[in-house]
Design brief:
The chain is of the alpha/beta class. It folds into two domains: 3-146, Response regulator (Rossmann fold), CATH 3.40.50.2300; 153-256, Beta Barrel (OB fold (Dihydrolipoamide Acetyltransferase, E2P)), CATH 2.40.50. It is 32% helix and 30% strand. It is built from eight helices and 15 strands. A five-stranded parallel beta sheet has the order 2-1-3-4-5, sandwiched between helices. The protein has a five-stranded antiparallel beta sheet with strand order 10-9-8-12-11. The protein has a three-stranded antiparallel beta sheet with strand order 13-14-15, with no helix packed on it. β6 (153-158) and β7 form a beta hairpin.
Length: 260
């Protein structure tokens, strides 16, 4: 690339070491120019408006104004940059995909993972010569402002790997203190999340809180059996059994439309 068309990047992170790392990893690439660095979301909003970067590396959790709020501040007539999110928390990585960020980096990231995200963004920016991308991203941001979207995938770390579990594959979720255990047809995974926190992110039309320590996916219920003291046994497609407590029975009645 010539200087006239170098990619203009903005680095936004409240941690100086994180900004240093990104600057160092970009340092050997003559295709990019770091036009500014910001230590908080308010600085970022002003820098994006005044500098019009092609790409922003955006931390999600920052004082006063976080990464998602920075995106929501974009104006309708403002050219939207590509976004590579950085986050130390898996659940935020999932939401980064939900708002259609170009990519995300899960801290602590290494040079190999950073380079994958950077090279993908660079290749796309080189190809981008129309205004279609701006209109598409702005439409998605308007959708984000309209209200929260429910999770479509969970980020699962197991055996040194990170992968995505489609919520459509989930049978049930059980609480284990400040963790939850998520079950699909054949396996289960431990995630650092409270059951109440996860419940707020799931579509209530698909997932049912049936006990203070359990959630089930409604279309995975195979059978209901009357149990003791007004409770029910729920039998799932894979044979796993859970208890529907009396306190949550009304939730299921609302779903099935019949008195239990």
């Amino acid at each position: 690339m010539t200087d006239a068309i170098r990619i203009r990047a903005l680095v936004i992170d409240d941690e100086p070491l994180a900004r240093d790392m990104i600057r160092e990893m970009l340092g050997g690439d003559s295709d990019v120019e770091i036009v500014a660095e910001c230590a908080n979301g308010r600085e970022a909003v002003e820098a994006i408006r005044s500098l019009s970067p092609d790409l922003i590396f955006l931390d999600i959790q920052m004082p006063e104004l976080g990464g998602f709020e920075v995106l929501e501040s974009f104006e309708a007539n403002q050219a939207a940059p590509y976004v590579i999110f950085a986050t130390a928390y898996d659940q935020y990585a999932v939401r980064a995909f939900e708002v259609h960020a170009f990519d995300y980096l899960l801290k602590p990231f290494d040079e190999e993972r950073f380079n994958i995200a950077w090279q993908r963004a660079k290749a796309q920016i080189k190809l981008d010569r129309t205004g279609e991308r701006d209109r598409h991203i702005l439409a998605l941001l308007e959708e984000l402002k309209a209200g929260p979207r429910y999770l479509e995938r969970l980020v699962v770390k197991t055996g040194g790997r990170v992968f995505f579990l489609d919520v459509a594959e989930i049978l049930c979720i059980e609480a284990e203190g400040n963790y939850v255990r998520v079950y699909d047809q054949t396996k289960h995974y431990l995630l650092r999340e409270t059951i109440s926190g996860l419940e707020e992110q799931l579509d209530p039309k698909q997932f049912l809180r049936m006990h203070r320590s359990a959630i089930v996916k409604i279309d995975k219920i195979k059978e209901l059996q009357p149990w003791f003291h007004g409770e029910y046994r729920i039998i799932l497609e894979n044979g796993k059994q859970l208890t529907l407590s009396r306190n949550y029975r009304a939730n299921l009645q609302d779903v099935v439309g019949n008195a239990l």
